[in-house]
Amino acid sequence: MQYVSWKQGDPQVGGEDRQSIKPKTWTSLKFGKEGELIKPDINAFAQIATYINVKESGGAKAVHVRFIRDPKGKADFTGETSFDLSLGHKFSHTWFLMAKKGTPLAVQVYHEGSKPMVIGTREFKAAIGA
Q1: 73 has which bridge partners?
Q2: Is residue 11 over pLDDT 70?
Q3: DSSP state, 89?
Q4: How far is CA 115 from CA 69, 86, 105, in A?
Q5: Percent helix, strand, coil in the chain (nearest 5)?
Q6: pLDDT at residue 92 is higher than 70
Q7: Confidence (pTM)
Q8: d(Cα 60, Cα 2) in Å, to the nearest integer?
Q9: C-alpha angle 69-40-9 in degrees, rounded to nearest 5
Q10: How far apart are CA 74 and CA 36, in angstroms?
Q11: CA angle 8, 38, 104 (to 5 degrees)
C-alpha cells in the first residue's frame, strides 16, 4: 500500500501558496515541496483526490480538472470534471484508476479566461493498493 498526501498553501508545509495557470493550457498543479508528480511504487487500484481553491478566476466561468497518467509522456488522462465558478471557488473531486508502477500521476487544470487564473491552497491525496 502506498499513501500520498500533499498540501500546498499551508504554512506548515511550505512552498508557494499561489500558482498561476495560463488560459487555454492544461497545467499540472504543484504540491508541497515534492513537486507535481506521484510515482506509484506498485501496480494496483488507486483512489485519488484533489482539492483546489481558485483565488482569481482570470475571467473564466469554469475550471476544468483532470487526473492524468504520464503527463510528460503520453498524457493518458483517466478522469475529468468541470466546476462552475459562479457556484464558488473551492472544489474537491475523487477518482479511481489503475496505477502502474513508475508511471507518474498528476492533477491538471485548464480554463478559458482571458487572464491567468490563480490557484491558492491545493491538495492531492492518493491511496494505491489494498
Answers
A1: none
A2: no
A3: S
A4: 28, 17, 27
A5: 0, 55, 40
A6: yes
A7: 0.88
A8: 36
A9: 80
A10: 16
A11: 140
